[in-house]
Amino acid sequence: MSTDLLTTRETRGGDSGTSAGAGERLRVAVIIGSTREGRVGAAVARWFATHAQQYDAFELDMVDLLEVPLPVRLTEEVTPELDAWSARIDRADAFVIVTPEYNHGYPAALKHAIDLLYREWHAKPVGFVSYGGVGRGLRAVEQLRQVFAELHAVTLRDSVSVNVSDGEVDDLGWVREHTGASTAAKRLLERLEWWADALHSARTASAYTA
Ligand SMILES: Cc1cc2nc3c(=O)[nH]c(=O)nc-3n(C[C@H](O)[C@H](O)[C@H](O)COP(=O)(O)O)c2cc1C
């Protein structure tokens, strides 16, 4: 790893303690990882949000990477775009990554958005909603677990995974009920609430340093 990147990591925003305060709802950023033309991802994310909205504990921020202006290269230059991205991720108490699988991996746009920040991800839980062909996006999820471990984030065991090439979503990208995905989403959200609450308390009690 370059010294430049280390410097960026140490200095860019985020003290991992500025998210929801006592009595406030836990802030969950749902990140849509696909920016592909004709993507299914936005619809899958909306489907998941309908489940998450049923939890009073959560305040949702739908993060569509297609609409977030980001620097095209990793940079130490402080730009308004990078500051805004830093503040948005720093504000969150938890993340749900909605990711497809491309060539047994996850989208490059998602990796770039992750790599631009460092402390903002620390000591926060990350859940996954994945989709793809027969692999249901699970290979992308397993790779993302390694990425988020490096970022001192905690990935949840339970995830939602959908086969979009086998009739599990309808023509509008909505996940069909018979797939069991709604039950999986509920379990994921329960786990996310537990971890988001626990880690928020921990970050409040003692700043996480890495
Ligand atoms: C470039 C590319 C590579 C893909 N590779 C895989 C793959 O390795 N495994 C898989 O299960 N599906 C694969 N797929 C299918 C996608 O997961 C599926 O089309 C999904 O809908 C893509 O998400 P999006 O529509 O939100 O972009 C691939 C699709 C594309 C466009």
UniProtKB/TrEMBL annotation:
Residue span of region Disordered: 1-20
SUPFAM superfamilies: Flavoproteins
InterPro entries xref list: Flavoprotein-like_sf, FMN_Rdtase-like_dom, NAD(P)H-dep_reductase
Signal peptide: none
Domain NADPH-dependent FMN reductase-like: start-end pairs: 27-163
Protein name in the entry: NAD(P)H-dependent oxidoreductase
Species for this entry: Streptomyces gossypii
Biological classification of the source: Bacteria, Bacillati, Actinomycetota, Actinomycetes, Kitasatosporales
